[in-house]
Amino acid sequence: QVVFALNQTLLQQESLRAGSFQSPYTTEDLIKHYSCGDLSSIIFNHDTSQVPNFINATLPAHELITAQEIDRYFRQELIYKRNERMGRRVKDLLEEYPDKSFFFAFGAGHFMGNNTVIDVLRREGYEVEHTPAGQAI
């Protein structure tokens, strides 16, 4: 699986460099949607580039199964568990210091796809609101 993942990652990078593969969105798109709080946009409906995309229609059946297994593993270990830990840390601080005010800032990756830090906190009963860039807190 490791060799497969490395080969697929290298093939993707070579395709990007050659111009035969393009990302479905630009960095500017990501910044705009993040800044506007548009977490339901097409960009944020995926777990995006945090996990290399090993699954493609041109893979033989046995490699497609390997790609799907690696994809599930990466999403669980690199995204979902990380966001769960971050959300629990926020919750623990809020509960440990109920009379304190906090400001939490996270990178965009914590807000993309499913099982985000926001999802974790909402499941715990917290109300989370987006503050647009430039708006006073």
Automatic annotation (TrEMBL):
<keyword id="KW-1133">Transmembrane helix</keyword>
<dbReference type="GO" id="GO:0004222">
    <property type="term" value="F:metalloendopeptidase activity"/>
</dbReference>
<dbReference type="GO" id="GO:0030178">
    <property type="term" value="P:negative regulation of Wnt signaling pathway"/>
</dbReference>
<dbReference type="InterPro" id="IPR040230">
    <property type="entry name" value="TIKI1/2-like"/>
</dbReference>
<keyword id="KW-0472">Membrane</keyword>
<keyword id="KW-0879">Wnt signaling pathway</keyword>
<keyword id="KW-0645">Protease</keyword>
<comment type="similarity">
    <text>Belongs to the TIKI family.</text>
</comment>
<keyword id="KW-0812">Transmembrane</keyword>
<keyword id="KW-0732">Signal</keyword>
<keyword id="KW-1003">Cell membrane</keyword>
<dbReference type="Pfam" id="PF01963">
    <property type="entry name" value="TraB_PrgY_gumN"/>
</dbReference>
<keyword id="KW-0378">Hydrolase</keyword>
<dbReference type="InterPro" id="IPR002816">
    <property type="entry name" value="TraB/PrgY/GumN_fam"/>
</dbReference>
<comment type="function">
    <text>Metalloprotease that acts as a negative regulator of the Wnt signaling pathway by mediating the cleavage of the N-terminal residues of a subset of Wnt proteins. Following cleavage, Wnt proteins become oxidized and form large disulfide-bond oligomers, leading to their inactivation.</text>
</comment>
<keyword id="KW-0325">Glycoprotein</keyword>
<dbReference type="GO" id="GO:0046872">
    <property type="term" value="F:metal ion binding"/>
</dbReference>
<dbReference type="GO" id="GO:0005886">
    <property type="term" value="C:plasma membrane"/>
</dbReference>
<keyword id="KW-0479">Metal-binding</keyword>
<dbReference type="GO" id="GO:0006508">
    <property type="term" value="P:proteolysis"/>
</dbReference>
<dbReference type="GO" id="GO:0016055">
    <property type="term" value="P:Wnt signaling pathway"/>
</dbReference>
<protein>
    <recommendedName>
        <fullName>Metalloprotease TIKI</fullName>
        <ecNumber>3.4.-.-</ecNumber>
    </recommendedName>
</protein>
<keyword id="KW-0482">Metalloprotease</keyword>
